[in-house]
UniProtKB/TrEMBL annotation, chains A, B, C, D:
Entry keyword set: Transferase
Protein family: Belongs to the deoxyhypusine synthase family.
The protein's name in its UniProt record: Deoxyhypusine synthase-like protein
Keyword Transferase applies: yes
Lineage summary: Bacteria, Pseudomonadati, Bacteroidota, Cytophagia, Cytophagales
InterPro entries per record: Deoxyhypusine_synthase (IPR002773), Deoxyhypusine_synthase-like (IPR023496), Deoxyhypusine_synthase_sf (IPR036982), DHS-like_NAD/FAD-binding_dom (IPR029035)
GO MF terms held by the record: deoxyhypusine synthase activity
UniProt GO cellular component terms: cytoplasm
EC class name: transferase
Taxonomic source organism: Flexibacter flexilis DSM 6793
Keyword presence, Transferase: yes
């Protein structure tokens, strides 16, 4: 490797382990403070209520560069402990970052200062704020997606179906055995937890898919985002009581909220999301969805107002505190493994 | 209508008309100020350079609730005057808001204060910050999408293909004649301007599609987001020189930047986006894509650093100033009607 | 001058001229949009109401680096046209920036990118985001304040009294004749408009005062911030009806709101501020004063809720639109020159 | 008390105790994550370096409603353990909130939703975002300041001198014995730690001072903000090596940074601040001081660039983590009690 590139790609991102830090007393103490400490504490309490409520299916949404930032193991621990039952994410978190690390690649501690982005481009180093990625590694990730496409029967897939195939790929290739253990994609594959990426081509997966469709113009894999929406709606119909733990906003937030309305469109009864917590730094004052309050979502009939909390904080700080709080409270004990992937396999059979 | 509902839905949103306000002297004066006035002015100059550069294809991206906020006619005027050649958007702007108004519905001036969202829910009034929507109107919009689905040959469509069908629907139904004139969907249909919505099921369209697929479980329309990505990449290959005018971030920003890399994946030569302007209130400090600097995008090989400008401002204020500046400079004169829809019709034929 | 320094200090900031841009039609059009366009328009309408209400004294507050950013002439035009009757500001705007330019110095167009702040330090160039200042010029400004201190009778002064002496200094030194015309300090001196800087030592003035007191340890000028508060309270008692036009938050916002309570403490009747408009980018979610809503200020009995508006925008963009709107509406016609400095000269005589 | 008022003022804010939560392992783990987790961790490490460096005087600055939000005991513990040697603050934190609680009053857990601020006004309940205050209690606080004024020799005082008298008042009145133990004002009085409030009249103290000066028009206490600046400069000259721990921005941030320049103005050698950490949610993009980077401060010759860190987070979450990290590392062991109040008593004698 180019020596300058080697110099810049030295120290790797390490994922925080919520199991190692019992934050319960501190988060409880924050409940009687003010501002975002109090909001964070209430958010943690509501996420814990979702765990205590054994009827409640928990949807985790991921937007922003969370996995590259050291939050991968937080998600993996939530999945392993049956604390989340379905995931809705942007593509980058699942493909470019989680699947990428499952292939054995790493994210590097970089800097946003004193660095010339044109030099990085010449070195094929991609920058996410203060984090570096080796673009040559990422191209291998793109290619791997392309290979998976080529190996599949040509037909429309939901992103969930495709991501499950990515999990199967990791599972069936022992060369990834040491990396996949802490992979969201692989853990969800094992646990039957569906992962939806409603804008699936908007990430490394897109590059693989474009390559596949370009070279297979008539018969090819396609990604049906409508099928995603139908499938996640079926999950809601199957398990009506639900709670949302949303990291960031964007498409995943909107998508998971909309399923309540989708049930109504299908003339099926389904309650609003009973619990909802969002961690975000987005502002409500530009009217965009990411920062819109959960009270506003109530006007749309999507989220109930009793147990909802916006937590205005950056996810790398707030998510370990909220997830770790619920983990150490231990309320996940007795929660069933819901295996919604298996459920969808059954209901997807045309009636 | 319920009298309370009628009381709340009185005054309608009116779209600003950039043609009526010559902001050139003011925006020029901002060039020698500081902070965001200077940035906005430089952004306007760069958007004007895109107009002057007759080789340059201009991609407009839309994220946030822009159309409901009164910016519809800004987009329509850019399309009518050949100032943008392709659009990438979130679904809400195109379906729930633009197509919705093309059906004859309106957005209402509401308030974020002193209103109880549970009362709004009971009245079937949806709230976007300070704007109200009649949910009953929106359900008709959902249904209309469902009807369009039912009328199409069952196969995978790119969102662009589907949205063109929405334009055709407006064009062929004279009852919409008085509303469609100022519709983005219809104007783009007439002008051959492609509209891509990479997360197409994440909006009112999703409800129509879910209804369609639920009732047509084996043979149905699907939305192939990979095809979207391939098509927009083909646009870039057809017209290599390009500029970006991005309103908000999110999926549309990422998607349009990624096409440079997609060309490379296909082993085709294509330059980075030569010009790029983004209006956003997102912050770079959480590492998310929406607020990431355009310099950072250069490290990824997506955007060149010479003519790029982040404008930190809310879109309802900044977009009319930047679009209006370029419009009144008149540099769009002589820009060709690129009709990328027609181009895609040709290249989409398998080689 | 060092050639590198000369290279960096080439182009000067030019102040925007609201008189040259009739923004009335555009700001009126923003009233029926959403989000911050609508808020800005309503803010402009309320500022115009203050002009129409001939009983209303208008307080302008300034926080942030506004004068260096090209907003000096906006303030000067408001003063010249009797559109503001008193100013409360941070020290930097009044001393380091306005008085500094009145001495003949300039602010320079700089950049926040690709510049090493340690190099700037070595060159004695100070940076404010994207603006450069010659520290050697600033030292002359500091010294000038020191000279004014030395020339005054040793006693406690309100910042208002001291700033009036700065105006007198400019008025009596013809070498500043060409620069002072567009100086806030000098225009306010001529028009009898009081300027309060509640944290007066927290700026270039502080350096002059420290030098003065260090060298005059027993008998010296002091700055009595309590006297400031008493004086501005007397202004409110003299002219009970009042409106606030606040650019940024900080000490000036708090100070001017508090005078309603101060009247009450003195057992005098005085109404809440009847009108209030604040332009700010501060967030309410950290509980700090700068971003706190004007509705919150009502709970404190400081601001009435009928005609108040927060405008979430950066000042260099929003202030010219709001000030320019009121200017071009012409409602300032018939507003009296209130000359509160003269009023204070009388009431300051002990009863 | 009015029953509705009683209903709203039920639960009191409890201050978090950093001694009870060993956050060292978690904050260390954040060092290899990204974004603000990494920045927070680095900020904590730098604050710990200030503790390890026994030559370094540590200045704590406070802006925002921190004390009412539950951070009082964090500051008290830093003072008790010789971890900060001087404080610069806004007035509200020191007078309306800390001194107020030392008089036996409390802050109440309130809400920002579903509450009508005009009702609060009628009930004499003041709101800070989600926190309530009994205005009747606050009036007693104002009066107490007035009494202290009346008891002092009429002359100009620095805010530091006045606040020390507030500490003496608490010390000499045994009725406050149970409350003062956790008072910043009283602890600093006992430990000789100076507290500077550069805009001292901009808070509850202002009301007391206005009342005092109104009723004592010719001979009265005045607050000399220039003396504040001179005194804090003398602290820097006495202990040249220094570090800054800044919570929020505003006047305190600017004031403490400026003392390096003030030393230079007095033609004394003094190094830049060697260490600097700021917790803030302010944005740099409006060019205001609060959000300006510490690198920018280097161009002004105020802060060195080697050990500086901006932490973009809300203080109620981040301050306990950073302060608690340093506390549990134990590096404060061996730090001297610097008693700068005693030093100033000596140097304030005219040379």
């Amino acid at each position: 490797m180019n020596p300058r590139k080697q110099e810049l790609l030295q120290k790797t991102i390490q994922h925080i382990d919520i199991k190692a830090h019992n934050v319960v007393p501190m988060v409880d103490a924050m409940a009687t403070m003010a501002f975002q400490a109090r909001n964070l504490s209430r958010g943690a309490h509501i996420f814990n209520m979702m765990q205590e409520d054994k009827e409640c299916a928990v949807f985790l949404t991921l937007a922003g560069s969370l996995i590259s930032a050291g939050l991968k193991n937080v998600v993996v621990d939530l999945v392993k402990n049956n604390m989340v039952d379905a995931i809705v994410s942007t593509g980058a978190n699942i493909v470019d970052q989680d699947f990428f690390e499952a292939l054995g690649f790493k994210h590097y501690i970089g800097t946003q200062y004193g660095i010339d982005d044109t030099e990085l481009r010449d070195l094929m180093i991609d920058r996410i704020y203060d984090t570096f990625i080796d673009e040559e590694d990422l191209r291998i990730c793109d290619d791997t997606i392309g290979q998976i496409c080529n190996s599949l029967e040509p037909r429309p897939y939901s992103s969930r179906e495709f991501i499950r195939e990515m999990g199967r790929f990791l599972d069936e290739n022992d060369k990834y055995a040491e990396f996949r253990e802490n992979s969201i994609v692989w853990q969800c594959y094992k646990k039957g937890v569906p992962i939806f990426v409603p804008a699936f081509s908007d990430c490394s997966a897109g590059f693989g898919l474009v390559h596949h469709q370009w070279h297979n113009p008539t018969k090819h894999v396609s990604i049906d985002s409508a099928k995603d929406f139908l499938e996640i709606t079926k999950v809601k119909l199957h398990n009506p009581e639900s709670g949302l733990f949303m990291i960031g906003g964007g498409v995943p937030k909107n998508f998971v909220q909309d399923i309540v309305v989708a049930c109504d469109i299908l003339e099926k009864e389904a309650p609003m999301h009973k619990y909802a917590v969002q961690i975000t730094v987005a502002d409500e004052r530009d009217g965009a969805l990411s920062g819109s309050t959960l009270k506003e979502a109530c006007s749309w009939g999507k989220v109930d107002v009793v147990y909802e909390q916006m937590v205005w904080a950056e996810a790398t700080i707030a998510m370990p505190l909220i997830a770790g709080y619920a983990y150490h409270k231990g309320s996940q004990a007795g929660r069933p493994e819901r295996r919604f992937n298996d459920v969808l396999d059954k209901v997807n059979v045309p009636a």
